[in-house]
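Entry 14. Structure prediction run on the chain below.
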Amino acid sequence: MDYVEENVPLAPYTTLGVGGQARFFAEVQSRAYLCVALRSATAKGVRVCVLGGGSNTLVPDEGVDGLVLRIKIPGMSFHDDGTGTGALVRAGAGISWNTLVRYATSRGLWGIENLSGIPGTVGAAPVQNIGAYGTELADTFVSADVITFPKMEHLRINATQAQFGYRESIFKKDSSMIITSVTLRLSRERIVRKTYSDLENARERGVMLDTSLDIARALQDIRSKKFTIRANEGTAGSFFKNPIISKERYDVLQKRFPNMPGFPIGTNIKISLAWILDTVLHMRGFRKGNIYLSDHNPLVLVVRQPSTEKEVGEFADDIALRTKTATGITIEREVRSCKLTTM
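Output returned:
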């Protein structure tokens, strides 16, 4: 594989800034180049791990004994969807998610403005079904073009096939799918959404919230303040998912914690883990060595260098154990390990 680098440190390519080296590493700028890389990996029996912006990835200290592909496929376009009120926006998987949000909102399009400020790439967004302020990627998702490894199938996955759930998708369950582009359907008409205290506070300070671009800019500013970190530190944003439990279990917990907030998700209830960590466990700012929970948002795990993936894992496991002991709730990580595909 002449086109790849060998023994490349991966920590600089992730926002957590920990982990070892990739045995092989390549930046992918096109679908054609991706096909060449995948065919070469197949021929040589080398397994593959896909890396986007590295904002939601934890690399093991021992590194990755395979080919790490950093997806940098560019390109953005949009055209009318035929309804007169909407537009189809298509973006390459390597485009920064926030670049796409700015691209869409600056053209007066609505639908993803509430997702402003979320780190990562367009290709990673469907994997996690990113969400914030009452909006998920699934709300606007039309399709994703993928190449499967090692079968080398070229597929277009629609919204039904994507199997979206809370921070879940078929792309997360099936790591053989490598996303090369994503198409969204956005609206030219204002989408009225439930208001949130962060936006109401901004409005009271005189911030204009009349257009999708106004809202995107305001939320970008709000998130940047919530996720402020110091030099020589890294974070993946929210490290854990908010747990989803049955209404019956929620009712039981409310008897112990009357002020515990809950948000209906179908027949279940989504719990604010930040509230549990802050109010029940009093862990805002909790620190072990160079790793700590943010003073601004206890759901955010911050890593100060030097640190290791092992230390991050042990810290996260401690948080999970304390939560389980106090509430009986098992929490899951939102951050994923860099896993190699199965040949």
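The radius of gyration is 21 Å.
Filed with the rest of this week's runs.
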